[in-house]
Every structure is written in structure tokens, then in C-alpha cells.
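ingest -> validate -> predict -> emit
validate: passed (alphabet ok, no gaps, 177 aa)
predict: started
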Amino acid sequence: MWGWFAISKDLRINDEIRAREVRLVGEEGEQLGIVQLREALQIAMDKSVDLVEIAPTAKPPVCKLMDYGKYKYEQAKKDKEARKKQRTTEIKEVKLRPNIENHDFETKARNAQRFLTDGDKVKVTIMFRGREITHPDLGKTLCLRLAEFCKAEASIEREPKLEGRNMIMILTPVKHD
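emit:
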């Protein structure tokens, strides 16, 4: 089965409209009343504009007189502007070992700070090997030490938790007003 379905992006225009009579709206938004489709198309032709079906589910359907090309151009511009302002949050990962040296820790912590200031979340992973798993308290201490190091830029979204041979904590950037 097929049919005409109007979606806000793909509006029916001019000869694509399939109703007998329509509620006509002028270019400035003024109501012109319910008219026959042929008459509405003639009015649109006389004014050198398009007849666009803006509410196909209404009884009768609502059609507006407008320059469809200009309307689509304006919509595309608005959509592009909206996409420009959108910010996707990524999750960056910092991997550590329980017996990490101080300088290495500071380097990893600075990387985490940089990710957080860029607006990304940081997943801190402490990897345990061999018998290190018997000391999960070392991993938790290390996670909390990193959180303390980044406390100006971050808050803890998820507390340190042991998952298999890894301990995971998630830091989220703090919104500065």
C-alpha cells in the first residue's frame, strides 16, 4: 500500500495536494477562509508563490501561500545553525596501574584535567595484574587521589567499582557559570 504522507520536512506543494477544498492562509498569516483547491492554486499562481500544505491532517487541510524555495533555504540555514551549537560529549579513558610512579601519575592526571576542561567525561581504569587484585584498596585510593587532583574541573559521576580485574570510576566535567 502506498499513499501521500506529509512530514514537516517534505511538505506537499501545488499539484501534489490531494484535497478538494482547503483552509487558505495568506503570506502574512491572515486567514483567507475555506476555498476550493483550484481556486487556491489560481490565487497562488496570480501572486507568483507556492501553495504549501502545512497541516495535512486537519479537516479541511491547511495550506499557506509562500515562496517554498525561500522557506526551504531558511529551514536549512536554521538546521545548520542548530547543528553548529550542538556539542557531543565523548568519554576519554585514562588507564593506570596500582603501583604507578608519582611522575607517571601526574602526567596521566594532567591528561585527565585537559579532557575535562575540553568538556569530555573521563573514565579512569585501574588495571590489576596477577596478585595485585588482592589489594583493591590500593586501586580505590589511586582513583580518589586522581579525583582530588581534578576536583576543580570534575565531580565523580560513578564511584570506583571493581569489575573483573579492573576498577572503574567515571569523572564528569563541572559546569562553570
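Confidence is low (pLDDT under 50) at residues 1-8.
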